[in-house]
Design goal:
The complex is a heterodimer of chains A (about 425) and B (about 325). Chain A has about 425 residues and is of the alpha/beta class. Chain A has one domain: Spore Coat Polysaccharide Biosynthesis Protein SpsA, Chain A (Alpha-Beta Complex). Helix content of chain A is about 50%, strand content about 10%. Chain A contains 14 helices and 8 strands. An 8-stranded mixed β-sheet of chain A has the order 3-2-1-4-7-6-8-5, sandwiched between helices. In chain A, strand 2, helix 3 and strand 3 form a beta-alpha-beta unit. In chain A, helix 1 crosses helix 11, helix 8 runs parallel beside helix 9 and helix 9 packs antiparallel against helix 10. With about 325 residues, chain B is mostly beta strands. Helices cover about 10% and strands about 40% of the residues of chain B. Chain B has 2 helices and 28 strands. Chain B has a 28-stranded mixed β-sheet that branches. In chain B, strand 1 and strand 2 form a beta hairpin. The relative contact order of chain B is 0.08. Classes of the chains: A alpha/beta (about 425), B mainly beta (about 325). Chains A and B meet through strand 5, helix 6, helix 7 and strand 8 of A and helix 1, strand 26 and strand 28 of B.
């Protein structure tokens, strides 16, 4: 019994230490974004020699949004002879195929890829599209995205830097006003991109390639083995693959693009569970390579590890909560006694818990959003909601690791009613 | 007591959510962040949009009469000074249209845009809000442009301030002490007009493979050819005199392209970049520090548009040249 109590106590301390580390991380990023010189992305470069680009859009039953993304891309200011658009019809059962064929007939830049056999899912679809793609640079958009006219140029210009293997833009929800969930997701996205990603880019750490509104060098991906179809988070996998090989991911905060945020809690739950499962698959895969990589310095490794473990945090916290309840009812909660404990508790409640809120609030400030910041306390509900589904995703990833089973890709449901692409 | 405590706890908890609840109900700030989906980068944006605004009201600018009011973004009076009288030095409060070649008297003030259909010589110390010139625009010393200037050719004297943006269809010549933020022209040059010597056909090497990298622990030696990309992760990078790098360069410390060295690709610097005398970069130069171009150095090549973009400022020395676009978030100055 004494042994169990000690394990519980040690785990409690471990949870607190982990929470403090992530709290400090949030503060460092936020302070960097607020008070330090911001690293410039190269979107201002004008160059007559541009890369040939293939824009790839995986689609599965996307009749509601397919026209929107294609219309937006066909309006792009990118030189026509250097741009190729490959919408991938991935086992669609609706009118996606007809829509894609219609656009292929009217514009030579559109080269649809229809897939009805082989492996399903985004990584497999991207692998097949890359065999067709003629561009040096592959840019990926999800089907519900509405790229601005200059977005392809902004993203592809980043590859003029010889060390950049992938470029990531910023995602902005288009349906923010829909309901409380979309409003909270808007806040999360702001914090994630405006502060978190930009700060990591500023500090030469590990900005993450997010799998959409981003691109990568085709030859680099092909030379390093294409996308792994067993990995659900092919974007995270690519991020770590690149960094561990000495390449960089560039973050373009000004390369903004609208996306459709989930409008129902059920859809969001599935999405976050999939992200957790995929991200944790990468965590198991890259934990050791990150530590061993000769290309990463100490701070990059630290950031890489913290980012890798980000979807493990809710699991640690959930277990920590259970742990603290057990200790409380066993009357064994006196881990740190006296004033020291009170000072720590006070400090953590004042600053630690507040850290992610501070990050999101700063993002709102930088975006010039003044009223939506009042919704911040409601993020706490999301936290507990995510805790459960991220934990589920975490344990699924452990099963994936043990059984080597193939994960099934689940598409995020779309909510858009109209078929056009204007906002 | 317990009930009071519980009640207080609930009230305090509720207070945290109250402002958010009010915002949910009132929906004052529930719109998606604005993205201009129609935005296209155009260095001549100011001049083009002003010209478009004018041409929306009158088909031929020569047909505008003195004192005519045009509805632009708001009602604007257009002054057309008589062609046979030299304009006096003074303050021009309205948009001013010169239909013939004109010499602006020193220390004039144009509080609105100046439009010239022919060549214009702007007198010393003149203040110009913005200028659109169909032909050459010659600025005497200490002319100050507040916003933008666009002409077929711009020649700026000493200590001019070129405002937010100066663009020329053919050439932009900068005098000593000029300040600038954004410049755009096929040839941007410091000092005197002359025959261009940088030809695109001077050097011809195949572009190295994307993954052909130089071992950054080794130095770049003088006068040698490097058919690779170079990424210098630690410390400063010096491309020694006369060396030729056919790929692109990235450096986390200071980058120096030494005398007569050539980089055929792009130069990306996290810190300052120095392009020494006679050195050439054929691609773009981008820096999160400052860039200094020494005499006779060049960026880009004739017939192509390449860029020099920096965060912390640009210093240009005599006879340095850029073929295309220059932009800095800091201060640009000619030494």
């Amino acid at each position: 019994m004494v042994g169990i109590i000690w394990i519980l106590k040690l785990y409690f301390i471990f949870t607190v230490v982990v929470m403090v580390i992530y709290g400090i991380r949030h503060y460092i990023f936020t302070y960097n974004r607020l008070y330090y010189p911001q690293r410039k992305y190269c979107q201002d470069i004008l160059d007559t020699d541009v890369f040939s680009v293939s824009v790839v859009i995986p689609m599965h039953n996307e009749e509601a949004v397919a026209e929107g993304v294609l219309q937006a891309l066909l309006r792009s200011d990118y030189p026509k002879d250097k741009l190729e658009i490959i919408p991938i019809n991935d086992f669609s059962e609706d009118k996606t195929q007809e829509i894609l064929d219609k656009y292929a007939q009217t514009d030579k830049r559109v080269h649809p890829l229809h897939r009805f056999e082989g492996d399903r899912g985004k990584p497999a679809a991207l692998n097949e599209a890359m065999k067709l793609a003629k561009g040096e640079i592959i840019i990926v958009f999800d089907a519900d995205y509405i790229p601005a006219r200059d977005l392809v140029r902004k993203l592809s210009i980043g590859f003029l830097d010889p060390q950049v293997g992938a470029v990531m833009g910023r995602v902005v929800p288009v349906n923010t006003s829909k309901n409380i969930l979309t409003r909270l997701l808007d806040l999360e996205r702001s914090g994630g991109y405006q502060v978190d990603q930009q700060a990591r880019y500023n500090m030469d750490l590990l900005p993450q390639y997010g799998g959409t509104v981003g691109g990568f060098r085709k030859a680099l991906l092909m030379d390093t083995g294409s996308f792994n179809i067993r990995v659900l988070a092919e974007d995270t996998e690519l991020t770590y693959r690149l960094f561990c090989r000495g390449w960089k991911v560039s973050y373009a905060n000004s390369a903004e693009c609208y996306e459709e945020a989930p409008e129902s809690w059920e859809v969001r739950a599935r999405q976050i569970q999939r992200w957790s499962r995929g991200h944790n698959q990468c965590m198991w895969r890259y934990f050791v390579p990150v530590l061993k990589s000769t290309y990463l310095n100490f701070w990059e490794k630290l950031d890489g590890m913290l980012l890798l473990c980000i979807y493990m945090m809710p699991v640690i916290l959930l277990l920590g909560l259970i742990d603290s309840l057990l200790l409380f009812f066993m009357d064994e909660m006196h881990i740190i006694a006296g004033w020291l404990f009170l000072i720590f508790l006070g400090a953590y409640n004042t600053f630690g818990n507040f850290a992610p809120f501070f990050e999101i609030g700063t993002a709102c400030f930088l975006d010039g959003a003044r009223q939506r910041v009042f919704l911040l306390p409601y993020i706490a509900f999301n936290f507990y909601f995510y805790m459960w589904f991220i934990t589920k995703g975490f344990f699924q990833s452990i099963l994936d690791l043990i059984t080597h089973r193939k994960a099934t890709w689940q598409k995020t449901a779309r909510f858009r009613q109209e078929k056009g692409g204007t906002v | 007591m317990l009930i009071i405590c519980l009640a207080l706890f609930i009230v305090m908890l509720f207070f945290a959510f109250l402002p958010g609840w009010i915002e949910i109900k009132r929906k004052k700030d529930d719109k998606s962040m604005h993205i201009n989906n129609n935005y296209v980068k155009d260095p001549e944006y100011f001049a083009k949009s002003f010209k478009k605004l004018l041409l929306k009201r009158v088909k031929d600018l020569r047909a505008i009469e003195d004192g005519q009011e045009l509805e632009l973004s708001k009602g604007e009076i257009i002054n057309c000074p008589p062609q046979n009288i030299e304009p006096a030095s003074g303050s021009y409060k309205h948009i001013t249209l010169f239909k013939q070649a004109v010499s602006i008297m020193p220390h004039s003030q144009f509080l609105k845009e100046m439009v010239c259909l022919k060549q214009v010589q702007v007198g010393q110390g003149t203040l110009l809000r913005a200028g659109l010139c169909k032909e050459g625009c010659y600025l005497a010393n200490q002319v100050q442009v507040i916003r933008w200037l666009d002409a077929k050719k711009i020649v700026a004297g000493e200590n001019c301030d070129l405002g937010i943006s100066a663009t020329a269809k053919e050439m932009l010549l900068l005098g000593k002490g000029c300040h600038f933020t954004r410049l755009y022209a096929p040839i941007i040059k410091v000092g005197v007009d002359g025959v261009e010597t940088v030809q695109a056909t001077d050097l011809s090497f195949p572009k190295p493979a994307y993954n052909a990298f130089w071992d950054d622990s080794k130095d770049i030696e003088e006068g040698k050819l490097y058919e690779v990309n170079i990424v210098k992760r630690h410390g400063d990078l010096v491309v020694k005199p006369g060396a030729i790098v056919t790929g692109s360069i990235k450096g986390y410390g200071k980058i120096t392209i030494a005398n007569q060295a050539t980089v055929l690709g792009n130069v990306f610097g996290r810190k300052d970049v120095i392009i020494e005398a006679g050195a050439r970069v054929w691609g773009d130069v981008f820096s999160n520090g400052m860039v200094e171009m020494w005499p006779d150095s060049s960026i880009g090549q004739i017939g192509k548009c390449k860029s020099l973009v920096t965060r912390d400022g640009i210093k240009l020395h005599q006879n340095s040249r850029i073929y295309g676009y220059v932009s800095t978030d800091g201060e640009g100055i000619v030494l």
